[in-house]
Structure formats: C-alpha cells, structure tokens
Design a protein that fits this description.
The structure is a homodimer of 629-residue chains.
Chain A (H helix, E strand, L loop, with lengths): L7 E4 L7 H10 L4 E5 H5 L5 H11 L2 E8 L9 H19 L3 E5 L10 H17 L3 E5 L10 H11 L4 E6 H5 L8 H4 L5 E6 L9 H7 L11 H10 L6 E3 L4 H4 L3 H20 L14 E10 L2 H13 L3 E6 L4 E6 L2 E6 L5 H9 L2 E9 L2 H10 L4 E2 L12 E3 L5 E5 L8 H5 E3 L12 E9 L4 H12 L2 E2 L3 E5 L2 E9 L6 E6 L6 H9 L3 E8 L3 H6 L10 H11 L3 H9 L3 E4 L5 E6 L8 E8 L10 H10 L10
Helix pairs in contact in A: 1-3, 1-12, 3-4, 4-5, 5-6, 12-17, 20-21
C-alpha cells in the first residue's frame, strides 16, 4: 500500500518519569518523533529551548505540542483571553521548535454550539499561528461539549478555510463512540489531515472520559479496529506521522524504556497489518504457520530433576532419551515431549538460579524458522542461540517478555528430528505408548502490568489472537484471564494476572519471582480413562460441585458418578461441545498439569470451573516426593 | 425509629478465603447471620450439613442461600428443568438449615417478557418450597433481561400471590439505576419483603454489571444514598436482617477478619444514621463536635528528634516545652503544636521501631472525649490509654486503621490545658509569635486496598464526610485521592493511594512500611510573607509552571513574580476563591510540610498543582541535617 511506512511518534504522556526520561526512552526504542504533552513540560525544571536541544541530540522530531484545551466558541471576555493564551503557547512552541499545536474540542459548559463561531475563532488562531510559521490542528474529543465526531471537526476546519489549520484524527475518540472513518478518503484531502494519533483499548462499557484516561493501550493490545482506522487515514492520502497517545495507569507506572519498546513494536506490527501478508511491500516477514508445541523445557538441578521425573512417571510419562552432550533428559508420552535440563552453566541453569524449577523454554513448530526469527528481530525482540555440541542441530530462539526462550523448530526440515540428532533415544521410546495426544495449552501467570505487553508480543511475533478478557474467582481474589490462540488452535496460551498476591496466580508469581508457565494442559481422547490408569496425584474436587453439575446440566447419574470418581470437571458450550478435564496438584506449589478431553469442537478452557479448581488448589498440599531410604 | 436495630448479616462473597474462613470472620466481627453464596458452597470440600453445624457452633444464622439464577419465564423444556433444579437446591437448603432462597431476575436471551408467566413459575416454585417448609424471595437484578426494577419484581410477586414468596430488595440494584424506594411503604406490606441486601458504591459511569461485580463497597464507603434506601425499607415495616452483599476486588483479596469488621462497622454506623443523632433510641453516642487538630505527635529517637527539631526551626517553630516525666518535646508556632516523642519503651518508641520517624498520633479537639470514646468503642474500634506520670492529664485515644493513635482532647474542659498540666513550658512559649494559624489539613498515604476502610472509619467515628475521588498525576503513576473533612472544615484529611510503588505516595508507604501521615499543611494569612521570612528548604517549582499560570489565569506580572520568587503554587476556584501554597522538601524522603493561604472561602487543596508538586518531589533531594563537626 505504501512504499515506506509513515514516521512513528509517541506522546510523552504514554511513558513514566521526567520529560528527559521519556524522551530518552522514546529515542532508544527507535521512535522518530515525540508529542510533547504540556503537563510534562510544565513540570520540567528547565527552559523549552533545552528540550529542543535534547530532542535534536536524540534525533527526535517534536511532532506536536498538546493539548490546547477549551479554545473555540467561547463568549467574551474568554474569547479574547484565549487568543492571548494561544500567543503565549506559540512562544513556547517556537522555543521548543515544533510548528504544530493540537486544539481539542471545547468541553466547557460556557462553550457555544455555533460551528460558524468555532470556525471563525480557529481561523483567527490559525492566522496568528501562520504569522509565526506555525500551524494548528483541531481534534474532536469524544466528550467534547458540542463537537465530538470527526465530521463535525472537519466541517469546522473546512469552514475556517485557512492553510495553517488542519484536522487531527485520534483512533480512540472515533472508535470509542462506535464511529468509523468511512467516507474520510472522499471528503478530506490528505494534506488537510494535520496529524493522526493512535490508541487501542479493551472494550469496556464505561463513560468514555474515564475509559480514555485510564485504559487506553497500544495498537494490537486492545479490542478496537485500529487497523481499519489507519487504513482509512492512508486511503485519504495522509502522509504525516502515526503517533501513539495512550493514557494507561499501568504504563505510567512501568519502566519507560519497556513501554516505549512495546509502543514501537505495536506500530511496526500495524505497518505489517496495513500492508497485508501477501503484499510485497510488507515491511515484515509473514508470521510463522504454527504446528503446535514440539516440547517444553524445564530448568531443574539434579535433585529437582529426579523429583520432577518421578512426578511425570506417575502421570504416565517415560524417560525416552538422554542428550548427547548435556545433562538433559527427554520425557515423552504419546505426542508430548518434556525436556528436563539440569546442565550446569547453561541458560537453563541461569533460569533455575533465578526462578527455581520452572519452564525455561517452549518450542513451537513453525513452517520456516529463519523467517520467524527475522520477523521477531524486526519487531524489536531479542533472539538467542545455545552453544552446540558436535553434530547437534541449531535451534534459533526468541526471548519472550518473561525472559524464557521460545525455540523455533521446523519439523521435517531435514530427515532427522531434533530428537534423533541431539539425543540418545532409548529403545522403543519413539513408540512410547500413552493416551496423550499433544500439548493442548500452556497457561502463563503474569505479574500486574504485564498483560498488554504479553498480548502484543504473541500477537505480533506469532500471530496468536487474543480472546476477550474474563474474570476468574480465586478464593483470595479475582484473576483476570485472556486466552490467546493461533487461527488453527494448535497453539493456545491463556494469560492470567491477579492484583492479589494470595491467589493461585499471585502465589506462583511470588514463588518464581516473575512471570512464567503456570500450568500445561495435555489433550487426551478419554480423560476418564487417563486418570483411571495413572498414579498421578490429582486435585480433589468436592462433592458439592457434582451436586450442582447435576442441577445445571441434567447429566445422567452414571456420567456424574464417573466424573466424581475421577475428580473430573465438566463444561458444555452453547453448541453442545463438551469439555472434560482434571488437574494434578502442584509440583512444589509451583506449576501443575491438566489433562483435557475436547468433544464436538469445544474451543474454550472450562472457565466456569476455574473457581472450583482454584479453591481446591488453595486447600491442596503440593506434591512432594516420597522420602528416600 | 426502631427500638432495636435489625439483625445484621453478611454474604460470604464479601470475604476472602474458604467458606469456613469466611464464616469464622463473620462471627468474630459480631454478625448474627451469613448469606451463603452458592459458589462458596460448591468449592467447599464437605457436606452442607457440616456447614450447618459450624454455623450453629459460631452462633450464626444462615439467613439465605443465593443466588438461584435464570429461573422464571423460560420456554419448555428449560422450564421443567428449572423446576428440577429448584428441587435439588431445596435439598441443599434443607441440609444447610436455611429456609430462604434468593431468585434473581432472569438474564437469559431466551427468557420471555411475560410477567404473568414469571408469576406462575414463581408460584409453582413457592408451592414446592412451601411443601418443605421453605420460602422463595424474588429480586430484580439491575441488568435483568426483562425485570430490573423493584416495582416490576413486586408486580410479579403480587400476581403470584403465594405466602411462601416474597420480594427481595438490594440497594445497589435500585440505586445504581437512579431509582429510589419512593412509594414502597404504601405499596408493599412489610411482611412481604423477604430480605434486604445492602451495598454502597462509588459513582462510576460504567456498565452496571461490571460496576456491581467489582466496585461495590460497604454502606458509608461509597456515594450512593444508602441511608435513604434503608429508611424506606423500615418505613414499609420490614423487620428482617439487613445483609451486606458486596462484590469488591480488593475486599476479596484482603484478610477476611478486617473486611468483616469493616462490614459490621458500616451497619452499626447505618443504624445511627437511621436513628438520627437527636432521636433518643439512637444506638450510638453522637459523633464529636470537632474543634481542629490540637497537636501532631512524631515518633523519633534522640538523633532523629534533633534533626526534626532543626527542620522545624528552619520553618519558624520554637521549642516551647519539655514533658514533665518523659523525653517528649513540644514545638510550637502560632496555633500549631507539634510533639516530638523519643521516650524509650513508650507507644511512640514501638511505632518508631516499626516505621521510623513518622507521625504516631494526632490529637483532635472534641466537645466530649468520653462520648467520642464510647462511640468509637461501639463502632468496634480499639482504644488506648498511655501510662501517666504524677498529676498528668489522661488523654483517651482511638486507634486508627493505620495503627496510629487519635487522641481526644477537650480544650478548656478544666482550667489548665494539657500543655500546662503535662509540660514544663518555656518562658514566653505560650505567646510564641508566628505566622501559622492552625493545622489546615493532614494528608495520609495509604497502601492499596485501604481507602474504603479509612473512609468508613473517619466517617463513622468522627463524622468526617468524604469528597468524590479524584486522580492526581505523579510522574511515576496515578495517585487516587479522596479528601475528608468535618462539616465546619476544622479537620481536613486528604487520603491518597497509588497502585504504583514509585509515586510519592507509593514511596512513602514503602519507606514507612505502612500507611501514615504523608504531609501536614499549616494555614497562614500570608504565604508569600511566610516563605520569605523562613529559612526552610522549600520545594523548587519550575519556571514553565508560571508561564502556564499566566496563560491560564491572566495574573498580573507582579503577582506572578512574587509567586515564582517564593516557589508558591496558585489556584482559583469557580467562585473566585484563591489558594496560595508552598511545600517543603521531604524530611528524609518521608513526610513533608505545606503552608497554605486560603482566600475568599477557597475550600479545596489545589489539586491542579499536584502534578507539578509531585514532579518536583521526584527531582528534589530530601532534607538532611548539616554535618556536625
């Protein structure tokens, strides 16, 4: 669609810290410009000229000065005072070295509902701006008193008819009202669009002002149709910056560099969505086609490795191979591979030291590892390669936001599998019998403030799509959950976060001092047979749950008795899909496992049972190995 | 209005933990009954009969079993299935030993808009209930598909016309829609009201379902007219329990005993509001008439006491007295008394050990300390008396939710002031000159989840009224603020809380490992003269702030220059009231002081300047004493 992407800019209000902190973070994340949010300048102890010099040093354009509020269509004497106020702000802009100011539509009760008067006021402001070589952009705030739609703002800009006055578009203000940019391209010439601001947001039903001030997020993190919005802007011929303006309580409290990098990643991703995967000008390699989880790797030491091996044996896994050069074991059951890595002086050992026994890597089957790696690098991700022994296969990896690795495995790229090339496989291991088919999903527990970053990472790098957020009731507080999955459903990844440190999610984050894999679910064609045939310590589900199941679903007594005997949970969706699942107790109050049986296309995760599961976990004692003689 | 208050009950969903945890917390807080929330029973690993026995042991009635959802006006076959479901739940109720079930109005898309059918279904359910000696209550959910107002629910109950069916009222479902109970008393006989649930909430403009599920709070903690609601219920002749049903994310994550005690306190307070302070039957002594802050006491050790004395000297305070029996100093300026307590083995010493140098007590002037103390005790507060030396005056105290003491001082109750009785006053100290008039406000920094408890405590015990919440922008995140003040404005107490630990509020809470007094503001008739005449280390305000002040308020250049010279902040309210104020830097990155000048009835706190202040604090180095030779 475009040969080169539009310049990328970010508003200082998105980031935490002082104005210099914010500018430094924006530059280091690779932005070309910043919007200076007025409050950030007011609280800065130094003249605007210093900020101008700093921006030049950092290679940042100051794309706009914002916001100038409550200007147009005021009665006298406020009208006259507002012109004086504008002149004072023009002084500041000239000192800053930016030529554009954002005027947002008036919210004052005293403002008049008079587009002609608004146009006359903005024309006078533009005339004064032009005398100094400056420009004015006018934007409809979603909660403007009389002007809250872009068409109204455009009508006023058109009437004012001054070359130094343009229209400013903001995705949040348009999309939050359910409006679109349909018709923009025919009506508004591209060079009359002075500036474009982008923000996504979760779909919340609340007043638009509070929604805007607290819950905006970066494109791809929320649920608004940002790509459609940006596409219309480009169709109209706009060629200025795309600039992020995101008010988010958690972003404001997070390290500025991390948030700035997430912001830049969101715009790079948006470029690729706008270009479309099949368009040659696409600035990003296409996302990988995912074939499922090839293996999960646990960081352990020798003792924990033995204990975890014992736990897995009870679940029906068998030791299937030993790494050729490292202290690494392969445990296998059916289509599921688990790797236990206790090699000293490895990445896994570093992980173990920081976090204790936990998942340190996930391997995804991809169609083209090289392309997937290039995409990740273009999206500002760091990548990684492990040192190799003789003849071992290199597996490239991307570092996830929790610091764990995501290996990119091409199944069948060569004759030999990674298992054959890197492991001494035990006789018969390739045909290890077992009722597990594959890794069904890998659930992560995140610390507060990490959800948006994880959603964007997995969406942008791997093409996973997020489901709407939902709340799960833990006895010690709510857990917010958002499931991500690739279009084929082969890779599924629920993300959970909780304010409370006492919930199952919060306890895990405390235990491993970070985010990570909280549980791994394996699919099986027959969950009841699986639990009946295994010695694993399963989570005990109370009888009251089955009483209620009977009342809710009218299940027959035999099925009910089977479920209760196996401590199996049950769910049914609106289309008749059924879900039967059971959990192990936790390994040392850390991660745990789940077996799931999906019938008739059931596509969810049994959220209705999460409360019962979490209450049972709060009661259950974690698994500990039997004492040795 | 009533001779004895109605029984007090709380829903298990208000509290964290397992069902036995919740019941134990409710009993220990003094509730007479609990509502059993069904999910809490489902997740409990034990038969309902055990819960019944436990409730009996704890002296708790099980007031109701709830909720039974999506029952009425469904097409077949769901209708028949719902009757079966009801029978199964009746079994559970009989095992629990409760006779009342809450049916909330149907939210299913399949539900029919047919009050006659709804009435017929509820009549059949009531008939089946009556056959077992049980009763059914019907409640309008605010987001019910067809029934969401109490009048609709009453119409259906009236049509059903069965003695085992009554109306259930919930303050949130009524008030959140802007509805009232006007007309209830004439239309609904008291004995047809089966149950009443109470919840308050902050005024949020969001969808009522999310508002209800996450942000309810206890009566007196929010902004809804709960007292009016309860008054109408009583006028109608209802004499059953008043039961709290509050879904709140923070309450669910907090210790159950604390939340249960807050809940009970809210109902005791509500009783007194319903009775009215002048009605003899009022179950609570009237709140104290407040006369301002008599003194603030800082816990220090000898070294910190010297340093803080030096800091106060620079602000113009003078050492005015020495305690007769303890290592306690009085520092005074005009009408402001500050006490520095370094007495070993005292309550202050214990506070110092836990929290370091910080305010450990606030003394309020009250009209009747004995009455105030009785009120606090009736409101489940703990009280305290310091050991006394010979001839010293006893000052009773109430313990605040942050563990500090609130002394109750009767000025002029006897001839001698507490200063004359307990202190050796230095010559001339009584007339210490100074430009400070009084303590204007005492701002607290709270940890997350503490706001509601503090609001209720100060409202119930001291009659302070909370202002609506507002957000203040710190460079490291948002700070939520709620100001409390007594009707005369003599005692003002802004409460601040922040999610981020990096804001000024968050840093303070980390530094003292708890909630506490973050800053103390003193009033002066001339803030500019005050700062000009003092050697105190004031917070430096950047020039850009004054540029913007000029643009916003059109202040004349001389005033502007005066403000800038003194690092004074300025605000003006809509009625022309003006506010001039300045801050000291922090004492050791802990608390700080403010001087304020209120002109023409300005009643706020200069919130517009909070961002500039907090950015300046993030830059400022805290005050440290000059090195000694």
């Amino acid at each position: 669609m475009l040969e080169t992407p539009l310049p990328k800019s970010i508003a200082t209000v998105c980031l935490s810290g002082s104005l210099p902190d914010k500018m430094e973070a924006a530059a280091s994340a690779g932005f070309q410009g910043v919007e200076i949010f007025e409050q950030d300048l007011l609280t800065h102890d130094g003249p605007p000229e210093g900020i101008r010099a700093m921006a030049e040093d950092l290679g940042l354009a100051i794309t706009i000065f914002q916001p100038f509020r409550d200007f147009e269509a005021m009665p006298e004497p406020q009208r006259r005072r507002n012109m004086d106020r504008a002149e004072r702000k023009f002084d500041v802009m000239q000192a800053l070295g930016t030529d554009l100011v954002l005027v947002c539509s008036n919210v004052q009760p005293a403002a008049m509902d008079d587009p002609a008067r608004a146009a006359a006021d903005l024309r006078e402001m533009a005339e004064r701006a032009a005398a100094r070589g400056l420009r004015v952009g006018y934007e409809a705030l979603a909660w403007g008193r009389h002007v809250n739609r872009w068409r109204q703002a455009w009508d006023i800009v058109r009437r004012a008819d001054h070359r130094a006055l343009g229209l400013i578009l903001d995705s949040f203000h348009t999309l939050s009202l359910g409006d679109t940019l349909d018709g923009l391209a025919g009506e508004v010439p591209g060079d009359r669009i002075a500036f474009v601001q982008l923000a996504d947001a979760p779909r919340l039903s609340m007043d638009v002002l509070s929604w805007s001030r607290h819950f905006r997020d970066f494109p791809g993190q929320g649920e608004l149709p940002i790509a459609e919005f940006a596409r219309e802007v480009l169709r109209a011929g706009y060629r200025g910056p795309l600039s992020l303006e995101v008010f988010n309580d958690e972003f404001r409290a997070a390290p500025a560099r991390r948030i700035a990098r997430d912001g830049h990643r969101s715009l790079i991703w948006l470029d690729s969505v706008l270009a479309g995967p099949s368009v040659p000008a696409s600035p990003l390699p296409a996302p990988p086609v995912l074939g499922g989880v090839e293996f999960l790797e646990f960081a352990v030491d020798e003792a924990k490795g033995r204990e975890l091996g014992g736990f897995l044996s009870n679940l029906g896994f068998r030791l299937a191979g030993q790494h050729r050069s490292k202290s690494v074991e392969l445990w296998r059951q059916g289509g599921v591979n688990l790797v236990l890595n206790s090699e000293p002086d490895s990445a896994a050992a570093g992980h173990f030291e920081l976090h204790g026994a936990s998942v340190c890597a996930t391997a995804l089957r991809v169609d083209d590892a090289t392309r997937a790696l290039s995409r990740a690098e273009a999206l500002l991700c760091s990548t990684w390669r492990e040192r190799l022994g003789e003849g071992e296969r290199p597996i490239p990896a991307v570092r996830a936001p929790d610091g764990t690795l995501i290996y990119l495995v091409e199944p069948g790229a060569e004759g030999r599998s990674i298992w054959e090339s890197d492991f001494h496989l035990l006789p018969g291991a390739a045909e290890a019998p077992g009722a597990l088919e594959r890794v069904d999903h890998v659930a992560h527990a995140l610390a507060q403030g990490q959800m948006e970053g994880f959603v964007l990472f997995h969406r942008a790098v791997f093409g996973l799509e997020p489901a709407p957020p939902m709340d799960l009731p833990d006895p010690q507080g709510l857990v917010q959950s958002r499931a991500m999955a690739d279009p084929s459903g082969r890779v599924r990844m629920p993300l959970n976060v909780s304010e409370s440190r006492q919930t199952a999610t919060g306890r895990f984050v405390s235990a491993i001092a970070g985010a990570g894999v909280h549980h791994v679910a394996f699919s099986t064609p027959d969950a009841a047979a699986f639990v009946a045939g295994r010695a694993a310590p399963m989570l005990t589900i109370p009888g009251n749950y089955y009483e209620d199941l009977a009342a809710r679903f009218g299940l027959d007594d035999r099925l009910l008795a089977d479920l209760e005997r196996g401590h199996l949970l049950y769910d049914r969706d609106a289309r008749g899909g059924e879900f039967v699942h059971a959990y192990t107790v936790s390994f040392e109050d850390r991660f745990f496992f789940e077996v799931v049986e999906r019938r008739a296309g059931y596509a969810d995760y049994g959220a209705a049972n999460a409360g019962v599961r979490m209450a049972a976990q709060a009661r259950a004692r974690p698994w500990l190995p039997a004492p040795r003689d």
